[in-house]
Amino acid sequence: MNKLFGTDGIRGVANKYPITPEIVVKIGKAAAFFFKNSGRTKIIIGKDTRISGDMIESGLASGICSMGADVLLAGVIPTPGVAFNVLKNEADAGIVISASHNPYYDNGIKFFNNKGFKLSNQAETEIEKLIFAKGKGITIKKINMSKENAVKINKRNKNLIYKPNCREIFIKMNENINLSVVLKYINVIIDFI
């Protein structure tokens, strides 16, 4: 079996195996199947500013949605922000598209479980088996795509996912600081992103 996962997710040079659009769609399908729940599965995707992030994000979202799951696109967000939002939004999983400190032409895919933690090696092995199953074990479920779900999938809304959480964190950090100044600064930064 091919080995995709390394010490921190799946990494490589963008647009070369394993970070190709074809493999990334399969990764998205496998993730949706692995993280499925009894209701409607919800997966949050965030990314860094690498140019290949949009390609990978689109492939993952396509694969996930083809399995009948919902995707919340967080856009550009720090890795811990995705983990935090998995918990905050009661998502089934989170995915970060980033290669951290590696060169700009690299990129990677890192998963978080529904508790906001990195996956175990066993979970990564299960996802790899699904990716290379060649159709065995993964069935595409019929999608009932409502207008509401289409908006969730297609719209990046940092105000819903990130901005309220920044406010909440700052409020908990220190009740005595001048929040109006801090919140104006946060709004400028987030609106700029």
What can you see in these coordinates?
This protein has a 6-stranded mixed beta sheet with strand order 1-2-6-5-3-4, sandwiched between helices. The protein is α/β, with parallel strands linked by helices. The protein has 2 domains: 151 residues, Alpha-D-Glucose-1,6-Bisphosphate, subunit A, domain 3 (Alpha-D-Glucose-1,6-Bisphosphate, Chain A, domain 3, 3-Layer(aba) Sandwich), CATH 3.40.120.10; 32 residues.
Quick summary of this structure?
With 193 residues, the protein is α/β, with parallel strands linked by helices.
Question: What is the mean predicted local confidence, pLDDT?
Answer: 81
Q: Might you state the CATH topology name of the largest domain?
A: Alpha-D-Glucose-1,6-Bisphosphate, Chain A, domain 3
**Text of the CATH class of the largest domain:** Alpha Beta
H/I helix tally = 8
According to CATH, the homologous superfamily of the largest domain is Alpha-D-Glucose-1,6-Bisphosphate, subunit A, domain 3
The amount of beta strand, in percent, is 15-25%
Strand order across the largest sheet? 1-2-6-5-3-4
Radius of gyration from the alpha-carbon trace, in angstroms: 17 Å
CA(first)-CA(last) distance: 40 Å
Order of helices and strands: EEHEHEHEEHHHHH
Runs in which pLDDT lies below 50 for 5 or more consecutive residues are: 149-155
Level-2 CATH architecture of the largest domain? 3-Layer(aba) Sandwich
The oligomeric state of the chains shown is single chain
